[in-house]
Amino acid sequence: MKKTVIYAYTHLLILSFFFVGCQPKSETASPTYKDLTEAVYASGNVFPKNEYKVVANADGYLQQQAVNEGDVVKSNQLLFLLESLSQDARAEAAANIYRQAEANYADGSPILAELEAALRNALTKLENDSVNYFRYKALYDQNAAAKADVERVELAYRTAKNDVSARRKALARTKSQLYVDLQNTRSNYRVNAREGDNYRIRSFEPARVYEVYKKVGELVRKGEAIALLGNPDDVYLQLAVDETDFSKLKEGQDIVIKMDAYGDKVFKAKVTKIYPKLNKVDQSFRVDADFVGERPSAYYGLTVEANIIISQNPKALTIPKTYLVGNDSVWIEEGKEKKKVKIQKGVENFELVQIKGGLTEKSVLVKE
């Protein structure tokens, strides 16, 4: 019985020494010189440049859809057609009136032909009455005709002369009125044609159709968007930067971009615009950037993660960030003792902190 107890005790003692001997020493490290880049994290999306929405300029039902998502369109290309029965009727009536006005003023116009014929008849009668008048006047001067006959033919001559003058004025007045009517009907026709264009939705410039909001048969109200379009050949980045990092930004800074859609592929960009208004919803500022070199295909809204390069130091004395105690201290080993010292930090990233004071390359860092 005693042997068993002694054996058991001895066994436990051996195990105790084993575990004590196997306890790991405190993890240590020393400051080293490394290439240290300070960057600000940003997230955002890729958007096409010059994006715009086409909207309806009149109420109507979508009658025809000439394009679909993904199509590339030219400038002033017909995209959608709205039903416009009342407008079509007005446009047709205006066109008919305009054509009639053109016919009334054109050469061979029935209205002008009738007035011109009446003028010619009046001129013929004037010529006859003129001959009669001067013949009777000559006979009267020779005492071969009665004064009453001369007065009668003179009255006919003067009446014919006045009739010609009146018919010439009527012809000129009618021509002038027909010209005014033609201009007015032409203006009315053009106005109706422009109003008809309100029912034909066209592109402003070459673009890709990214989204169509309406389907054929649906009612579209005036001012309502029908589709979203954008430049198919150029894209830019729209990023959100946290309020705490905003003061570090400036235009022209380099950016490194990654997108889920492109796996591990890295794109480069530069900051082009910094917006001064804070988005109170997520406490961020908007930053725009243009790609440098290779750019992704113009797909709308691709999600991106970005690092905006604030500074680069090719030879910075650094320590792993995991050795920091609080915000400005570390533990170091001096002889067989641990000592807590304050440091002067420089730039930092997710892994490293630059040491500007408080440590040397020979310092031995230990964790708590």
TrEMBL record:
Question: Would the keyword Lipoprotein turn up in this protein's UniProt record?
Answer: no
Please list the coiled coil stretches: 112-163
Domain annotation CusB-like beta-barrel: ranges = 235-285
Q: Record's Gene Ontology CC terms?
A: cell envelope
Cite the entry's keywords alphabetically: Coiled coil, Signal
Q: Which InterPro entries match?
A: Beta-barrel_RND_2, UPF0194_transport
The record's listing under PROSITE patterns reads: PROKAR_LIPOPROTEIN
Where is the protein found, in the record's own terms? Cell envelope
Which positions carry the signal peptide feature in this UniProt record?
A: 1-22
Give a yes or no for keyword Signal in this entry. Answer: yes
Q: Which Pfam families match?
A: Beta-barrel_RND_2
What's the protein here called?
Efflux transporter RND family, MFP subunit
What organism does the record attribute this protein to?
Runella slithyformis (strain ATCC 29530 / DSM 19594 / LMG 11500 / NCIMB 11436 / LSU 4)
Q: List the taxonomic lineage.
A: Bacteria, Pseudomonadati, Bacteroidota, Cytophagia, Cytophagales
